[in-house]
Design goal:
2 copies of one chain form a homodimer. Chain A contains 12 helices and 21 strands. In chain A, strand 1 and strand 2 form a beta hairpin. The model of chain A has no long low-confidence stretch (mean pLDDT 96). Chain A has 423 residues and is an alpha+beta fold. Chains A and B meet through strand 1, strand 2, helix 2, strand 4 and strand 5 of A and strand 1, strand 2, helix 2, strand 4 and strand 5 of B.
């Protein structure tokens, strides 16, 4: 992509009303636009980041048997009344609206009820289970406060998978092993694997605990008690001697740290499925309850966390797996020799399948250096009279200070090598 | 995909309250689930169709300089008040809701206002234009009646591109040539090219005409007057002697036909951009208005139209470009030899990148034949004792009655050839 074709411009200052560092940076860098507190639009670079995270999540869900669906946003009140979750006193963050004929409808905040209702058409026998539908979809939650940028939105992108199992044993295997492994594979691919921990948290209506995936971060809204050796933590909300005892954790080994919840999974038992009349017939002809779980990952929250966590004082720093472009190529001077080499390297790299944001604008070199840092692509390539005199192009990693001059004819191979080292 | 892993089941009957043929078929075939009138969820096969159409649209928009964004659904009332479009008397199909603090917000039905507001941050000089942002996003319109299945939804998937040009001339080139060519490329790839016509329609507030893309269909909600030779039509809503004269059309050459609007493009002039204060400075330092156009394609409507248009009495018939799977492979008998050949062909085809829905279920052959027809994949492959005795597998196109026996070792190449002939 030529920067001259990309309509964004960077800013020195973030808007005064934006207090979250992730949103400040992403707005300054032209990745997102703030519509209102907790509601952001994704501009071209932000859209690519969101897509790359979604695709990683999608691949890992597909590997464990997930089947992608797309449920509606508008919600039929009647099916939520059956489980008692329509009532604003029970669920306090609905957005609700009305059809033209006056019928109340909800704006989707989660999808247990409609999904159960849909799959009732297909599930009758033990042969029809287990199943794992999921979606990557915009959710709406009417949060009273939304001051954390992409980390807590009123409108946000979420992956929600639902498991429908034939027995507690079948459920437990998926809930305790298969899903958490897939989650850690997602975090690993986002370079968050080392600092993300399985965390016991409140179980809600249907069980004692839920599991959260918490990434260590100064700006986290959660406090967790972490046993680094066991790679296990307990959310402050359930921290007690009894719980530590249950989990075989000792107070001495625990650290109190701030963290961001980057995923959560809930065992739902058969509370919702029974209420909505989803049952199956087992091998012996007996009617049985369907054991459910739900499994969330906040896709846009992860974008916010990655922005915030990896950033330095000069701007964004993206992991290779989600960077909108692998290389920021800047042509520093409007001289024929410089332009010619820039154009030919751009063409060579893009032909080789390497994604390049090519700063071909008529701007001062200082602007281009500053933008390369602020936008946060993993590698920077500079073409100038000086670099050509020195033997080629200047290559630099976003996270390192040292530069190297690379001859034009070996730049492609070197970039391929560098990128594979960064993945 | 193994059919045994896909949780859908087909039905003999559509729900009684569903009157649109496209939704009846898609529900019977397990592609979609009806949430309420005009609101559908996409089950795994439906989700793939929607994605394939979206990807075709995306590729064609990218070719003409489109840059993909994702605008928010929740809408800030203030920017819509500026153009007068918040008022329910002016725009009568808003869904509206409230933030927890009581602030009114809209649920997005189109995105001129927020997009202008966002790009005001980036556009100041003639060097910043033209630009063509677009999104593929769920839209919400509070239609009083929604009886046409996916063809007219209260919640639907739409591609909306917006052009921002520096002059009427620059606008006209994009509006009259570049965008329509890209649209026809989309319809061609969906096998609708031959029966889709550029149609003059009402221009709304800002101009005499808009352009619609109308596909001939018995179930179309629109009546158009078509000159097949000139490949041009006039929507009944603007049909008059004066208009025919304007367009150089003669009454004698026109046919009255029913059609479905599969795209529309509107010239917006500078009405919205002026109102929201989006201007640019030209080469001479003068402030100038930005000339806008908007360009819609109903992605989910196209899915409905394709379902309805190509279907026959046995079920769906998908164009190869959007079929969820290229091949429906059915293993007819639970015999070792039959299963072994089915499994190995499934494995061979999928390894070669051919998408296969493999009916490995323990069902009667009649069910499998009926499902293969109803689900509408372009090619059907049958493995049975009879086919093996005859020399291999039985291959059939969805749209033809003749079958042929293909030796196992040439099935892959034959399918590749057949599919390339069908594209």
């Amino acid at each position: 992509m030529r920067r001259s074709q990309l309509f964004i411009k960077t800013k020195k200052q973030a808007p005064a009303d934006e207090t979250a560092k992730n949103a400040q940076l992403l707005i300054r860098a032209g990745y997102i636009h703030k519509e209102m507190a907790g509601v952001y639009s994704y501009l071209p670079l932000g859209k690519i980041v969101i897509e790359k995270i979604s695709q990683i999540v999608r691949e890992e869900m597909n590997k464990i048997g997930g089947l992608e669906v797309l449920m509606s946003t508008l919600q039929n009140k009647e099916i939520w009344e059956i489980t008692g979750r329509w009532d604003d006193k029970k669920v306090d963050n609905w957005f609700k609206t009305k059809l033209a004929n006056g019928t109340d409808v909800g704006v989707g905040l989660t999808h247990e009820e409609p999904l159960i209702n849909a799959i009732k058409n297909f599930v009758s026998s033990y042969k029809d289970l287990p199943i794992y539908p999921y979606q990557i979809q915009t959710k709406f939650r009417n949060e009273l406060r939304a001051k954390s940028g992409l980390m807590r939105g009123r409108e946000f992108l979420m992956k929600d998978l639902y498991s429908f199992s034939r027995s507690q044993k079948e459920h437990d295997k998926f809930y305790n092993d298969i899903a958490p492994n897939a989650y850690f594979e997602v975090y690993r691919r986002l370079d968050l694997g080392d600092i993300t921990y399985k965390t016991f948290a409140s179980g809600g209506y249907f069980s004692k605990f839920s599991l959260e995936f918490q990434t260590l971060s100064e700006v986290g809204e959660d406090t967790i008690y972490l046993d680094k050796t066991k790679r296990l933590a307990v959310n402050k909300e359930v921290y007690s001697d009894e719980v530590l005892n249950d989990l075989g954790l000792s107070k001495d080994g625990l650290e109190e740290v701030k963290a961001v919840e980057v995923g959560n999974i809930f065992p739902l038992g058969s509370g919702y499925s029974d209420a909505l009349g989803l049952y199956f017939t087992d091998e012996h002809g007996q009617r049985q309850s369907v054991i459910m779980g739900c499994y969330g990952i906040g896709v846009s929250r992860l974008a916010g966390l990655l922005a915030e966590h990896f950033a330095d004082e000069r701007g964004l720093v993206w992991p290779v797996s989600v960077a909108p472009y692998a290389v920021y190529l800047a042509c520093l001077e409007d001289k024929p020799e410089v332009k010619k080499l820039s154009d030919s390297v751009y063409s060579e790299l893009t032909s080789a399948g390497i994604s390049v944001l090519y700063d071909d604008r008529d701007e001062r070199p200082g602007e281009k250096f500053a933008d390369a840092d602020l936008l946060g692509m993993p590698l920077r390539l500079i073409v100038s009279e000086k670099s050509i005199a020195g033997g080629g192009l200047e290559l630099k990693s976003r996270t390192k200070d040292d530069t190297q001059i690379v001859p034009a004819d070996s730049v492609k191979q070197l970039i391929v090598d560098r990128l594979s080292g960064l993945v």
